[in-house]
Amino acid sequence: MNTRLKLLIAVLTLMTAHLVASALPIGGLDQRGMVMLGIALLALVYWSTECVPIPVTGLIVMLLLTLYGIFPFSKSVSFIASKVNILIIAGLVISAALSTHKLDKLLGLKVLSLV
Asked: What is the pTM of this model?
């Protein structure tokens, strides 16, 4: 899919999601339900077409949940910012830094020389 088509899909989907979120409630939903329906539609199209990278789509969903007042920012971020996730990300960052500077091989050789 070319870049212009991806941009067109992204913009049209964002506009459609906003229209759905702003529409009068239908089918027993309240206004918050309509907002969630619009955000779910946006996520579905973005994930299925990959017009926006999947990690960015997740961030957009969190941002929209905050902007439309569904969740406060701290709650929407808390789903990914748990202590376990932070520990895993920190370990990956440290391992990437060690690998970039070739300290992983040095540490491995030091450990093996002790054995």
From this structure: 0.69
DSSP characters for 48-110? HH-SS-HHHHHHHHHHHHHHTTSS-HHHHHHTT--HHHHHHHHHHHHHHHHHHTTHHHHHHHH
Q: Is residue 75 scored above 90 in pLDDT?
A: no
Torsional class of 53: left (φ above 0), alpha (ψ -120 to 50), beta (otherwise): beta
Distances (CA, A) of 10 to 40, 53, 97: 14, 11, 35
- pLDDT confidence of 79, banded at 50, 70, 90? confident
Provide mean pLDDT across the span 29-56.
92
Give yes or no for a contact between 64 and 39, defined as CB atoms under 8 angstroms apart. Answer: yes
The HSE-up count of residue 58 (CA atoms within 13 Å, CB side) is 5
